[in-house]
Specification:
This protein is α/β, with parallel strands linked by helices. It folds into two domains: 285 residues, Crotonobetainyl-coa:carnitine coa-transferase, domain 1 (Rossmann fold), CATH 3.40.50.10540; 85 residues, formyl-coa transferase, domain 3 (2-Layer Sandwich), CATH 3.30.1540.10. 37% of the residues lie in helices and 14% in strands. It is built from 18 helices and eleven strands. The strands form three sheets. Strands 3-2-1-4-5-6 form a six-stranded parallel sheet. It has a three-stranded antiparallel sheet with strand order 7-8-9, with helices on one face. The radius of gyration is 25 Å and the shape is elongated.
């Protein structure tokens, strides 16, 4: 199938499958904003609220697009907030809270990710918002959820990794536990929040009822643990740290190539091992008792790894990958992000896309994962400047006059 064949029935006027929905976002850092980003990518109108003059922490963290350290040009902010609108609003003040409630009246979804109890203290929790908008889908993202012994604890990605079991098995054999990088749990939690909100919207479509969605970083990390809770509690199984391999079979590892590059090879299945043997010129090992069957290769993992590594070390990365892929073996080069941004597969399948920025021109970023043949989802614009849409929202949407806006600005409420 080609890209054109997939999109042959696409509606050219579609903004995406969630076009027409409105999301109000008062979030910080990563997990909360990712909920809004998924909605924006799928066509919803997402309005982001930030503190005047301060904004979100991601606006102030390196790297920036230039040397000015402009908070509107931080790569982190520009990645997780693309396609949104933004206003400044101090919801710690009574007037700011009143304005926020006015915005919430017109929203389908509200997303917040403050420590549990914070929105209640501001008079902006679910019961308060439901009072002005009974159909609201209200999403709270936190470290450990809205109840339980740790519910008031500030949540961060890495602590969730530590407490979910994820970190315990990540690392080299005999070494210390390691975190997974790239805010993995933050992003997974944002996806869970978006899935929950979309399911609640479907329920609302059927019944007219809104509801409250509680999503926790730790719960998400545990949800991603595959069989390990089942096996640890019911079968007494624990997983040791094993670096880039596993104890189920071999070869499955990250191997260094002749040119200093790396590749990752997965060939533990009995259907794949003969193909590896053919490529590396070791057909004699197909029926060797040390290698015949997954269990045998698992028991002799070190030997299998040594044989495989020796061949790979004698070849440049791309050549080794080409020959193994041609044989139908699951293998890929270990790419850095600069290579990812230029890879033909990721560009063609829109995993990496270009977007236009009014000051910085063409910017490359990650694309939208689910592809829709009828209602295509796209990155529809850059991340907003701080307070970029204040006039548009407060004047045009809420009807505040110029004098009122000036008063609110002078008092640093917007």
């Amino acid at each position: 199938m080609t890209r054109d064949e997939f999109y042959c029935d696409a509606d050219p006027a579609s903004r995406g499958p969630l076009a027409g929905y409105r999301v109000l976002e008062v979030t910080q850092a990563v997990a909360g904003p990712v909920v809004g980003t998924m909605f924006a990518d799928l066509g919803a109108e997402v309005l982001r609220c930030e503190l005047p003059g301060q904004g979100d922490m991601t606006r102030w963290i390196d790297p920036f697009l230039d040397d000015s350290r402009d908070p509107n040009a931080a790569c982190w902010h520009m990645s997780v907030n693309r396609g949104k609108r933004a206003v400044t609003l101090d919801i710690r003040t009574a007037e700011g809270q009143a304005i926020f409630r006015d915005l919430a009246r017109e929203a389908d979804v509200l997303v917040e990710n403050f420590t549990p109890g914070s929105m209640q203290a501001l008079g902006l929790d679910y019961p308060a918002i439901r009072a002005v908008n009974p159909a609201i889908v209200y999403v709270s993202v936190s470290g450990f959820g809205q109840w339980g012994p740790l519910h008031a604890m500030r949540g961060v990605d890495t602590v969730a990794q530590a407490m979910s079991g994820m970190m315990s098995m990540n690392g080299v054999a005999g070494g210390d536990p390691l975190i997974s990088t790239a805010n993995l749990v933050d992003h997974l939690t944002g996806w869970q929040g978006a899935i929950g909100a979309m399911a609640a919207l479907l329920h609302r479509h059927k019944t007219g009822e809104g509801q409250y969605i509680d999503v926790a970083l730790a719960d998400t990390a545990i949800y991603a643990s595959d069989q390990r809770i089942m096996a640890a509690h019911n079968a007494g199984r624990q997983w040791p740290r094993m670096g880039n391999t596993i104890d189920m079979g071999a070869p499955m590892n990250c191997y260094r190539c002749k040119d200093g590059g790396y590749l990752y090879l997965f060939a533990i299945l009995d259907t794949l091992w003969p193909r590896v043997c053919a490529v590396i010129g070791r057909e004699d090992l197909i029926d060797d008792p040390r290698c015949k069957g997954m269990r045998a290769r698992a028991q002799n993992r070190e030997f299998v790894d040594q044989v495989t590594a020796a061949w790979i070390a004698a070849h440049d990365r791309d050549e080794a990958v080409r020959r193994l892929q041609a044989a139908g073996v699951s293998v890929g080069p270990v790419l850095d992000h600069a290579e990812v941004a230029q890879h033909a597969q990721f560009l063609e399948h829109e995993a990496v896309v270009d977007m236009q920025h009014p000051r910085y021109g063409t910017l490359r970023t990650y694309g939208v994962v689910p592809k829709f043949s009828r209602t295509p989802a796209r990155v529809r614009g850059p991340a907003p400047d701080m307070g970029q849409h204040n006039d548009e929202v407060y004047r045009d949407q809420l009807g505040l006059d110029a004098a009122r806006l000036e008063q609110l600005k002078a008092r640093n409420i917007i």
